[in-house]
Amino acid sequence: MFSIPLADDAHLFPLEAWHAEEFFAHIERGREYIGQYVPFPDRSKDLEAARTLLGTNAHKAADDGVRLYGIRLDGTLVGGVLFPAFDAAGGNAEIGCWLEPAGVGRGLVTKACGVLLDWAFDVRGIRRVEWHAASENKRSIAVAQRLGMTRDGVMRQNHLHRGVLQDTEVWAILADEWRAHRAAAGPAA
């Protein structure tokens, strides 16, 4: 199976419909933690719903849109990264992430996002990638900062999640900014 090493014990791989059982088990383990800010748990209430979610996203990827990638730690799916929006013709994309508690604090999301940003900017010619995070989601905002992104602004009360209106911070990085950030970080980034 195709995968990219993130660390000795962690790998990034395309998350597809045939991973539904593994994905659902992961969602079950981290349902409340992940669901604080990410809709996957609410959209994956059972195995069939998880399979549908992954299948729908696979169709979007085939149309050069949304892409999902899982992160395995010691062989267990603990989270992932994604392009919830990908417009190659327009040169814009959005990147995001989710993790269950077992994957937190290891830098896996930052490394995985770096892989996706390299591909988006260097291979696909994307010019701008955004990061959207609830203002209260300090861990997510910290990833955007570690990736060298700039805070573009806050969309106030724009997102209803689990009955609560949330403010969304928009962070972004341009292709030349990413290349400069990557060069400054060196080969270990």
UniProtKB/TrEMBL annotation:
This is GNAT family N-acetyltransferase. PANTHER family: ACETYLTRANSFERASE (PTHR43441:SF10), RIBOSOMAL-PROTEIN-SERINE ACETYLTRANSFERASE (PTHR43441). It comes from the Bacteria. Residues 2-177 form the N-acetyltransferase domain. It holds the Pfam family Acetyltransf_3. InterPro entries: Acyl_CoA_acyltransferase, GNAT_dom, Ribosomal_N-acetyltransferase. PROSITE patterns: GNAT. It comes from Streptomyces antimicrobicus. Gene3D superfamilies: 3.40.630.30.
